Recover the amino acids of this structure.
């Protein structure tokens, strides 16, 4: 079993403060703010963007692995994850994740492709982390 570590530091109150998130041992570092997260403004990132990147990367790898095991090694797999942040009576909540995947796989049938795409969505470790709706739009190029 492997472990991955990232950290975050926040300074100040919620609306006027700011923070920094670091992925791994200084592999990437970026700022985040109330405005970037809840107002969609500024040039800082958000925790949801990082979750989306993790989900897109995990899904692409899971799909590639499943396809290759079935004898259909992808030339490329590109996934975008759109993470929706909303609210409920307890506060902020990830309400939905949309996965949009395009893959180039010579010789695969559309039905097989769609079946593998759905299996990867269900089996991806990051998908399994979320307790929310996950949709998938998979396109074979």
């Amino acid at each position: 079993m492997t472990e991955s570590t990232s950290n975050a530091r926040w300074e100040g109150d919620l609306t006027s403060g700011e923070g920094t998130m670091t992925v791994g041992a200084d592999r990437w570092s970026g700022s985040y703010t109330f405005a970037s997260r809840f107002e969609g403004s500024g040039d800082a990132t958000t925790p949801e963007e990082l979750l989306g990147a993790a989900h897109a990367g995990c899904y692409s790898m899971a799909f590639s692995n499943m396809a290759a095991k079935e004898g259909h090694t992808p030339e490329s797999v590109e996934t975008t994850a759109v993470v929706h942040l909303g609210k409920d009576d307890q506060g902020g909540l990830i309400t939905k994740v949309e996965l949009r995947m395009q893959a180039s796989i010579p010789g695969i049938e559309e039905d097989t492709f769609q079946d593998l795409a759905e299996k990867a969505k269900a089996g991806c470790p990051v998908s399994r982390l979320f307790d929310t709706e996950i949709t998938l739009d998979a396109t074979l190029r």
In short: The two ends are 35 Å apart (CA to CA). The CA atoms of residues 79 and 101 lie 4 Å apart. Residues 47-140 form a domain with the GMP Synthetase; Chain A, domain 3 fold (CATH 3.30.300.20).
